[in-house]
Each structure stands twice: as structure tokens, then as C-alpha cells.
Fold each of these.
Amino acid sequence: MLQNGFAVRSAMKSNPHIAVVGAGAFGGWTALHLLERGARVTLLDAWGPGNSRASSGGETRIMRGTYGPDQPYTETAARALKLWVKYERRWKKQFLHRAGVLWMVSSRDDAYERGSLEPLREAGIRFQELSTAVMKKRWPQINFSGVHWGILEPECGYLDARASCQAVVDAFVGQGGTYRQLAVSSDGLESGLLRGLTLSDSSRLKADYYVFACGPWLGKLFPETLGEVIRSTKQDIFFFGPPAGDTRFDANLPLWGDHGKRFFYGIPGSDRRGFKVADDTRGGPFDPTNGERVVSQATLKRVREYLAFRFPAMKDAPLIEARVCQYEQTSDSHFIVDRHPRMDNVWLLGGGSGHGFKHGPALGEMMAELILKDAEPHAVWRLSRFPGRNRLGVSPILAEREACPLPE
Ligand SMILES: Cc1cc2nc3c(=O)[nH]c(=O)nc-3n(C[C@H](O)[C@H](O)[C@H](O)COP(=O)(O)OP(=O)(O)OC[C@H]3O[C@@H](n4cnc5c(N)ncnc54)[C@H](O)[C@@H]3O)c2cc1C
């Protein structure tokens, strides 16, 4: 609460009503963990959990722990791994497919990968360092030229994206949470103390606390605070069809990331959709509401050239599907987990920056603790790291952006 211009914390009620806006990977898990800790929770989403416009849409996301040195994400990923398994067991559903994740080091500067090993060890995520000779023998369908060494995380793999978002909301409702498919108006959100939300059916919703987990829309809702802090970038995803009967590019290959001048990654054969390949370089600005989701021919050409080089047997593979998603990108690729600078009862959660999905269960757990215990978030996620307006910078999280500056 603001009194005489100073932030004063209101005493926490024992059973507060909390409105969570956004039922993607961040908001859905937050709502569920808040509910499990005794809060009364209303979850809202304009188009539904994991909808095709959301950053959590689509079928699959990579679960990995390799994250470079000096960062909180390997530990969060390790906690999330445990929670994914816990909820899979509880709900008798599978979301995590442990196909393994192979990280290929194609850059001469391997500080990112070298710096990943200790955090992996400390977090207890199993991994193996592999020489190029060993990788060549094990996966002859990959051309390892230019690859210096690799990291295999055998217990990681891919997560079902939209299916798990829906399962979280189903569980949330099953445990007594209220879910409504309605949009929250941005009108007046930053004009003073937040006393209620205006919804798309013209009703009002009052709560004690508000969590906004609106992915690429977060900056549109809070233009003064986040307008230039989160950018929505267009990301094209391609699915190529392997030859009939050929299992070298699904069951017999782990997920992979190739960290060279650019960062390419792929998920082989999930859901029979084909060989998923994407270039992680941040694309141009993209409007998540009205943007036409048509992939760029230039990106397709680049991905095809890469495919022909790294997976020669896929050289002439046809494109069988494609989709457009967007990253909600911060300048340093770190998340945003903080109170609104002027409203103590408003929390902002977002900035997944192309790597947030896997952390959903752990972030939701952390958010519930932060809100209910009135605690302070990790410094790396606080808004105070953006003095004034945001500047575009180089990511400490994904070193490939040093070689691939953000396109305009
Ligand atoms: C192509 C692609 C590949 C990725 N790969 C990976 C990966 O391999 N591993 C990984 O961990 N992460 C990955 N990510 C990142 C990850 O998917 C995102 O960081 C994460 O899904 C973000 O979740 P979110 O809940 O913050 O946002 P969203 O999923 O976008 O959820 C926000 C929700 O808010 C709702 N909403 C917005 N405005 C309003 C409003 N006014 N009122 C009501 N509701 C509203 C929307 O409908 C939406 O459902 C990838 C992302 C993309 C796009």
C-alpha cells in the first residue's frame, strides 16, 4: 500500500483471496501452489491454458539443466524436475519424456558449457561429458563436424506443453480453485492502488493480491513499468518428415541443442509430428494477439541448410508442419519475479525469454511462498535491475546471442 509515497506492507490475511491472471506455465502453476497453501484463488485467462497464441502453446518444450555459470536456473530446473514427477504420479499422467538431452558444443569458446558442469553437479542433475569420438559412434546419423565435445543429460527430455497447462488447471479446479475464461482490461491498471480488475464480461473482480503472469502481454498491461522491458519476438518452428520406416530421427535420438554461431535445437519425433527443428535466434517484433502466424521463408531456408549439414539423411526431408510462437524476451533473458514498484498487492511474473516452461512447477511454488510469506525475490529477477528504461543487451543466459545480436 502507498502511504505518503512510501510502500507500506499490509498485514497478510490468513486466507487471502488472490487473483492470478494468465493460465500459462507460470500462472497456472502459481495458482495451484497458492491454492495448495490455503489461499482462495481465482485464475483468469483470455483464451485458455496453453492456447495457440500463448507462449506455452504447442506440443513440446525442452527440460534441461545446462545453463552456464552463476545462474539460478539449474537449481530451479532440478526442483522443477522433482515436481514434474510428483504431479505426474499424483495425476497419473505423463508430461516428462526422458529421451535425454544432448548439448553439442560447436563454439570455440566453451565457457558456457564448462561453467554449466558445476551447477549440474551441485543440483544433482545427472550428466555425462562426451568426446566427439564417442558421440560419432553413438549417433552416426549426426554429422559432428565442428562439434568439440558434448554434454548429455540422460534424465532430461521433453515436456508436453499445452497438455500439462490444461492438466494444471484441471487439478486446480478439482481442488476447489475458480477458473474463468475472461480477459482482464488494461485500463487503469497503473493509475494507483489496484482495488479490482475489470473483466471482459464487464464484471469486476476484487482480491487481496493480484498476480499477473501474462507472458508476452505483460508489457501491454503495464506499459509504464514493463513496456520496454519485455519484447515479444517472432519464433518459427519447423517439423520435417523423416523417410518412411526410418527411426533414426525419433526413438533413436535424444533431444539436442547445437551451440555454435547460432543456437539450433530440436526435438525428434514427439507425437509423430516429425523432427522438430528451430533456430533460437530472437526474431523480429511480434504482436501475440493479432500477429499472423506465418513462418518466414528466410528462416526456413536457414533451418533447411542447417538440417542438411548436421543431419545429412534429412537433407531432402519435406516440411510437414510449421508453427509460429513468440518469446517474451527481457534484455538479459532473466525472468521477472517482483512486486509492482508502486503497488504492493500486485506481483508481476514473466519474461520467460524462451526458456521458462520447464521451471513452471518450481516457479509456481516459489511464487506462492513469496506472496504468502511476504518475502523478497532473488535479486536477479527483480525489476530494479532495469534502471530507468530497458536497454538491449547481451544475454548471460544464452551466450549464442553474443554472436547473434537481437534483430531489429
Ligand atoms: C517456440 C518456443 C520454444 C520454447 N522452448 C522452450 C523450451 O524448450 N524449454 C523451456 O523451458 N521453455 C521454452 N520456451 C519458453 C516457454 O514456453 C515460456 O517461457 C513459457 O511458456 C511462458 O509461460 P507464461 O505463462 O509466462 O506465458 P503464456 O504461456 O503466454 O501465458 C500467458 C497467458 O496469459 C493470458 N493472458 C494474456 N493477457 C491476458 C489478459 N489481459 N487477461 C487474461 N488473460 C491474459 C494468455 O491467454 C496466456 O494464456 C519456448 C517458447 C517458445 C515460444
Amino acid sequence: MSEILVLVEHADGDVKKVTLELLTLARSLGEPSAVWAGPGYTDAAKAKLAEYGAGKIYVAESEEIAGYVVAPKAELLAKLVSDASPAAVLVAATAEGKEIAGRLAIKTDSGVITDAVGLGEGFVADQSIFGGGVNVRSRVTKGTPIVAVRPNSTAPVAEPGAGAEEKVEIALSDAARGAKVVERVKQERGARPELTEAAIVVSGGRGVGSGENFSIIEKLADSLGAAVGASRAATDAGWYPHQFQVGQTGKTVSPQLYVAAGISGAIQHRAGMQTSKTIVVINKDSEAPIFEIADFGVVGDLFQVVPQLTEEIEKRK
Ligand SMILES: Cc1cc2nc3c(=O)[nH]c(=O)nc-3n(C[C@H](O)[C@H](O)[C@H](O)COP(=O)(O)OP(=O)(O)OC[C@H]3O[C@@H](n4cnc5c(N)ncnc54)[C@H](O)[C@@H]3O)c2cc1C
């Protein structure tokens, strides 16, 4: 079976969920090989990658890889593409992943597809473009297909692989040392999952009415183990921080479940959540455009519906 490289996303030695999704996807198309870039590799990480099907794990632990911005990872992947001639390279469609994908495409003279929400036979990728208005199927026609896949595009399923380790030494070029990381500041986060990676997102919009009222959105999110999102109307009003804005000028999310409360469904909001697998809408206006993309809609006052929903979920735990 043909080898497919999967760039591992990791933090503090933990393999991120999106990597397990990419390994699952790669397994359906060939033999996945994980690529670990930077320090922090542990036995637990190795076990996790093998558990989800990595036949091989390329380990490039050099401190230098993490010491410079993005470019070393693209250089590492380019070396592996040249040495191993894989059938494809998969990265997560995060801001960093997409930049790596673009750089790798230039280095290997290959085509690149970003923001894929699915990948099938022949590396044909599904994309949702123009604010979610058009679905496209595309395929790389030149070089090694490089595909950046959105988090939550596939449910991760464990199926053990050999996990054979191969150490990789890389001598970085001067160009890869162009931008040095001088400081890393860990963002303080609560117990909630990261917005773009969360399997469930609960978002509130103008209908929530105030910053204080966002606590009912947070309570529902916490009952589901979800991340909290917001429409631009809510973030512009200062009710919720901008980093949680979902949409064209905010974050793109593609969770298994997206709950939109008090959000009308403007095209710019849809652009950031339309590829969610199941969309639940709570809105008091039955004509709100967001109902057009809802799998399940509740016409009602969110101040009544959301607390009742939270209570019901808590009861069933
Ligand atoms: C260039 C550009 C980029 C943009 N980028 C983004 C973006 O990234 N993300 C984004 O979200 N928007 C973005 N916007 C803004 C977008 O056009 C909308 O203005 C915005 O999404 C509206 O937010 P909303 O749905 O919360 O508010 P509204 O459109 O005002 O809708 C509020 C909804 O709440 C409902 N409601 C009110 N009270 C209740 C209640 N008690 N119970 C239940 N329902 C209730 C109403 O019926 C209504 O449907 C952008 C706009 C532009 C021009």
C-alpha cells in the first residue's frame, strides 16, 4: 500500500485529536506514516500514533524545528517527500498547517488543496467554498498531493499500526531560519476544548442580549463538553471575546454538532460553520435564514429553551 505522510500536531507531548482524524483518513487511502516535528516526543505519543494506525513514525526532534516559525516543518516534509516518495501528504487545516502546506507545495512543485472537509479515492477532496454556498470536489494534478484537512472532518477510529520509529536528521537551510521564535506565551484556557477542534460548539448571537447572558450559552456548552462560539454581532458588542467569533472574518469550525442560539444566519456567519455535521438552531423568528441549514430547529425564546435544554442534558448524565 502506498505511504501517506501525516504531519503530527502536538502540544506538551500530547498528540492532538486532529492528527488521529488524519491518520484515520489516511488509513482509508493507504499506509499512514506520522511525522513528528520538534521536541517533546514521548512513549505515550508513540503509542497513541501507533494506536491510530501509523505504520511508521518519522521523528525529527531537533530543537531548531520548533525554534523558527513554520519554515523548518515545510523543509522537513519536503525532505521526506523526496526520500520516501509518498502518495500524499496530509496536514491539519489550521493556520500553521495551511502555511506549511503552501510552502511544501512550492518546494516539491506539487499541487495543494486546503480546507478539505473530506478526502476519497484518488485523493479527491471535498471543499465547501464561497461562504459555504458551493461544494467542490478537487484533485491535485501535479506532483505529490498535499491536502490540508479541516479538524472534525472524520471521526477518529483506532486501528493499530506497527509504529516503527525512524529518526530523521535535518540540516535547516538559512532560509528556514528566517524568522525566529523569541517567546512562547501559553494562553490561559479553561476546561473547554479549543474552538476550531471541538466536536461540539455552542454559539450565541445578538439574540443573547448581553455579555452576562452569555453564561447560559456557557452552561449549555459545559453540559455538552463543548466550545463556546459567537457571532460577530455578539463579539462586536463586546459580549464575548473576538477570538471566539465564528465566520468569514472569525474562526472556521466544522464540528459534529453546532448549536446556534439567537443567530440569524448571515452568509458571513454561515461561512464559518456551514460544514458542521449536525446543526441545531434556536431562534424566536421562524423566518430566520439559519433555519435553511438547520438539521433540527426550535422556534422559541432562547432564554426559555437553552436553560431547559441544559437541565435536561444534566439530568441524563
Ligand atoms: C465583511 C463582513 C464580514 C463579516 N464577518 C462575520 C463573521 O465572521 N461572523 C459573523 O457572525 N458575522 C460576520 N459578519 C456580520 C454578519 O453580516 C451579521 O451581521 C452577523 O452575523 C449577525 O449576527 P447575529 O446573527 O448574531 O445577529 P442578528 O442578525 O441581529 O440576528 C439575531 C437573531 O437572534 C434572534 N433572537 C433575538 N432574540 C432572541 C431570543 N430571545 N431567542 C431566540 N432568538 C432570538 C433574532 O430572531 C435574530 O434572528 C460580517 C459582515 C461583513 C460585512
